[in-house]
Amino acid sequence: MFKIKIIYFLLAYTLRGTFRQRAALERFQQRKWRRFRKIVLTHSPFYQELAQREADLSDFPLMNKAAFMANFDQINTLGIQREEAMQLALQAEMERDFSPELKGATVGLSTGTSGTRGLFLVSNTERAKWTAMVLRRVVPLKLFKKQRVAFFLRANSNLYSSVQSASLEFRFFDIFQPIGQLVQALAEFQPHILAAQPSVLSAIAEYQLAGEIQIHPSLIISFAEVLTTEDKTFIQNTWSAPLREVYQCTEGFLGVTCAQGTLHLNEDIAIFEKKYLDETRFIPIITDFTRSSQPIVRYELNDILVEKTEPCTCGSCFTALERIEGREDDILLFPGANGEMIKVFPDLICRVIARSAEGFRAYRLRQIEPLVLQLELESANFEGVAEKITNGIQSFLQERGVLGVTLRCVEGIQKKAGEKLRRVERKIVPN
Ligand SMILES: [Zn+2]
């Protein structure tokens, strides 16, 4: 039954083809939205009233993670209580058995780098849609040849292990295991496709360069963290295989790179409203038509996306992104001379670091006090590199009118196993 569903959705997505005209896409989205409002939202106590009187999307309330969790019981369409879902999710996480279901849905716990723990529900149908979409958009299906896919994940969930078919063999690697063991298992598996977060891909690349393993993937997929230009170059140089970036979070499968290497938003499965921060940077607010057990309506994400100013040559009219810049929470904030706040986008800092020095690969920069930055750095020439980066950052900040910042340099990155690596992190909360 599950496979039939996947095939059904796979066909539907394939037949849909490529949208080349923005107007046609918008008509399609409106149709999907009306259908979603009628079929799904009328079953959500939270949205029922608005849905029944056929309110416009813009009349629906804006949602964020905190409000989404606070109204969990009312939003979901299955009548699931937050307490019971949380208990099940915690138990699954502890026993590392993700099969138990609640009213036909599996319950997952999102990592929540910002502190709020998120709960998400996924039904069988939603899983089939997700799988079909990933197969269609990310994995090139080769007939008559079984492809081995190595998937590195924070925690197993039925969502991922379900992608097992005649032409694909999925192997799941739990990133909580020591990396040394994982790479040995990976070498034995010999994947055609390697999918992991960029920091894990980089770590595997280091083993390959050191000659400790030999794998030859023909496709590399990066997801879950922001892929920086440095990581991208490093990974691509190691394997000389195409690298596809998937923009995915617990809130959905939001985007993927096309054949031209441009990251496009999946605007046929969700409406993306854009909250602009400047001319090209925006925060996406998503309404996802594929989610029915826990509807995502006008949900404001934490990400800063940078729009491409020119259309992509692949011909798709889906919004093309220059890059995913990082999280809104990670914009560095400094007190200016006249009491104003000076914002520094994470990506700008990454570029300053990249052009200030070489001879290093991994770093993390954290704002730990309003005027104190901590630079964690891995380099054979730690002192020399740290000094160059410090000078680079200081003059960059001074040009922007930020004075009196202290930079502390620490050798090595203190990262917990399985933790997402954010290159630039703001640890202070603005008042
Ligand atoms: Zn494109």
TrEMBL record:
Superkingdom as given in the UniProt entry: Bacteria
Q: Which InterPro entries match?
A: ANL_N_sf, CapK_Type1_Caps_Biosynth, CHP02304_F390_synth-rel
Q: What is this protein called?
A: Adenylate-forming enzyme
The record lists the organism as Haliscomenobacter hydrossis (strain ATCC 27775 / DSM 1100 / LMG 10767 / O)
